[in-house]
Amino acid sequence: MTSTAPLNVSRDGAIVRLTLNRPDMRNAFDETLIAALTDAVRDAARDPDVRVLLLTGAGKAFCAGGDLNWMRKMATHTDADNRQDATRLADMLHTIWTCPKPVVACVNGDAYAGGMGLLSACDIAIAADGAHFCLSETRLGLLPATISPYVIRAMGERAANRYFLTAERFDAATALRLGLVHDVVPADALPDAADALCRALCANGPDAVKASKRLVRDFAGRAIDAELIADTVERIAACRATDEAREGVAAFLEKREPSWRQRC
């Protein structure tokens, strides 16, 4: 029986799979999908047995951004209502960005507007070779404000400046060249490639993965000065003293699997 929920959540061992499930609307956002995805990411973040989140779309598209019917309705609301609505989308993106566990975007098809923000908020993105990408807001007289912090970080200031302004559509090869996605594979190979990536993440120390994600968030763009160097020293010294680090080194020297890998 086909699910009618806007978001399908399933579990495969330590991996939580989140599937945007509005295929007839190209998985476009409305308030219900935004709320469901925000809650699902928060729930997975709190679950100690979850190691990785995998985000994808049902049907032929990854996410087409905002549902135009929903956006038309918002245009008739008060300024306060529109601010509250924009805040919900911003909170969803920030919840993904700050999730302590890695979030992998499996971009199965086109990613437009808010869909670009969604994949940019994830830690790793892998795309089907037929996927297309577009920051389409200016075509509608809008601007990509809420998604901009994540998209600029993902594709760089120079590229963001072009595509924010022109709303040009570009292909997966261009997305790869710009650094928006990490890998591009044939569509029929995408599920296996995404699964292999999640399994690789699960093989690593869970606390080390969380700390490494924080490392990137905290250090990107900072000057390499005495304060930052001291911070790096403090973090590695604290890490070396953990049970996880001791287990990892011991397992390597004893040529066995570490205990966390057996739990994946």
Classify the helix fraction into a percent range: 40-55%
Q: Stretches where pLDDT falls below 50 for ≥5 residues? A: none
Based on helices, strands and strand pairing, what is the structural class? Answer: alpha/beta
Give the ordered list of helices and strands: EEHEEHHEEHEEHHEHEHHHH
What is the spatial order of strands in the main beta sheet? 1-2-3-5-7-10
**Number of helical elements:** 11
- By DSSP, the count of extended strands is 10
Largest sheet: 6 strands, mixed
Instruction: Give the mean pLDDT.
Output: 93
Cα Rg: 19 Å
**Ends apart, CA distance between termini:** 29 Å
The rough form would be described as globular
Q: How big a fraction of the residues is strand?
A: 15-25%
